[in-house]
Amino acid sequence: MKKLLILLLAIFLILAGCSQDAADAPINNEINDTIEEIDDEINEKNEDTNEPEAEEDEKTDVPVIEKPSEEESENEELTEEISGQEEPIIEEVTEEGQIGEEQGENIENTLKIKGLVEKELCLTLEELKAMDDIIFEADFYSLNNFGTTGYTRFKGVKLWDLLKNEGIINPEASKISIIAQDGYSMEFTPEQVQMEYMDETNPDNKYPMIIAWEENGREYSLDEGNPYKLVVGQKEPGDINKPQWVSNIDLILVE
Fold this sequence. Notes:
255 residues; alpha+beta; Sulfite Oxidase, Chain A, domain 2; five-stranded antiparallel beta sheet
C-alpha cells in the first residue's frame, strides 16, 4: 500500500512539473531521487524475497534414493530369511558309535552281551555260526511244572565259552541275566553257567548251557523275534528245567 501511494505521488509530481519551466529543475531532481529510492526499495525487497527461495533450494537439494526393483527386494528378503535361520546341527559320530555299528548295534536279530566284560558284543547269527570250536548239538531232556517230559534237539554255542573267550568275563562278576525281548529273564551265577548238566533218563550224558538258534533241525524264524534260545539240562533227577529255557533272547547282562 505504501508503495502504491509513493508511486501515485511521483506521478502527480511529474505531471505538475511538466507545466513549470526550467526554473523548477530542483523539483525534478527530487522526483528522480524519489523514484530511485522507490527502485532501491523494490530491489531490496526482491533480494529479501529471493533469499528464502535460495535456502529452500538448498534444503531440497537431497540425494534421491532409487527404489529397489521387485527382484532386488525379493533377493534381499531371501538373504535375510536365510541368515535368520539356525545353523544345521551336525551330529558327531564318535569312535565308540562307529564300533557299535560295525558290531551290529543297529542291526536287528543280534545277540548283545554287556556289563562286566572286557568287550561288550553285539553278535549276528552268522557270527555265532562261525564259532565252530564252541558249537554244541544234542538232544536235551526237559521236564516242566506239569510233569510233561520230552526230548528236543538243539544246536548252538556254549554260553560259558562265549562269555569267557569272546566277551572275556570279569572275574568279579557274580550274576548273569538272560533277558528276552519281552522282558522275561532268568538269572544264574557264573558257576551255574559253566557247570555240566544231566539227563535223568541217562545220567552219563553231560550237557553245557547253550544259546541255540536251531531246534529239531530247523532254524528259528526271524519273523518271530530274535532267533536265540537258552537251553539248560537238569541239575539232578526231578529238576524242572524247561521254565529256564528263555526264548527270543535280546541281552546277556553280566553283573
